[in-house]
Amino acid sequence: MTQIPRTALWLGVAGLVPFVWGTVTLMSESAAGFGVAQFGPRYIGPYVQIFYGTVILSFMSGVLWGFAAKADEPVASLGYVLSVVPAIWAFFFVGGGPTSAIIYLIAGFLGLLGIDWLFWSRGLAPRWWLPLRAGLTGVVVLSLALSLL
């Protein structure tokens, strides 16, 4: 099966909302004002992107761990090691000011896509996994990059 399951696609697209919303609130004063009034300042601009991006990198570590569990040794051991990299990356590198945090998130998501490819190429992830992840990563990286402008 190479077609992305609807539920996975819709949940993936829904997961883009905080990244896109953060960019929109940086480019629109009215959107930022609405966001602050409705949700608070933590949920606009780079702050929502940094917080949510850190959560997603950690979440993806758990997903990758599940893929690693499908492998036989020694691939499983390498898979377990690689699976924790996104969470550790977020913990150690996503901090400081918003500019450096966004840059490290971009690097983290691009690195995650590389790890996704490794799992996918070994047949540990579903056939539809890489097309889904590549599209989602593209939007995430674009949203984060636009926030640097």
From TrEMBL:
<dbReference type="Pfam" id="PF11911">
    <property type="entry name" value="DUF3429"/>
</dbReference>
<feature type="transmembrane region" description="Helical">
    <location>
        <begin position="47"/>
        <end position="68"/>
    </location>
</feature>
<protein>
    <recommendedName>
        <fullName>DUF3429 domain-containing protein</fullName>
    </recommendedName>
</protein>
<feature type="transmembrane region" description="Helical">
    <location>
        <begin position="101"/>
        <end position="120"/>
    </location>
</feature>
<keyword id="KW-0472">Membrane</keyword>
<feature type="transmembrane region" description="Helical">
    <location>
        <begin position="7"/>
        <end position="27"/>
    </location>
</feature>
<feature type="transmembrane region" description="Helical">
    <location>
        <begin position="132"/>
        <end position="148"/>
    </location>
</feature>
<feature type="transmembrane region" description="Helical">
    <location>
        <begin position="75"/>
        <end position="95"/>
    </location>
</feature>
<keyword id="KW-0812">Transmembrane</keyword>
<dbReference type="InterPro" id="IPR021836">
    <property type="entry name" value="DUF3429"/>
</dbReference>
<keyword id="KW-1133">Transmembrane helix</keyword>
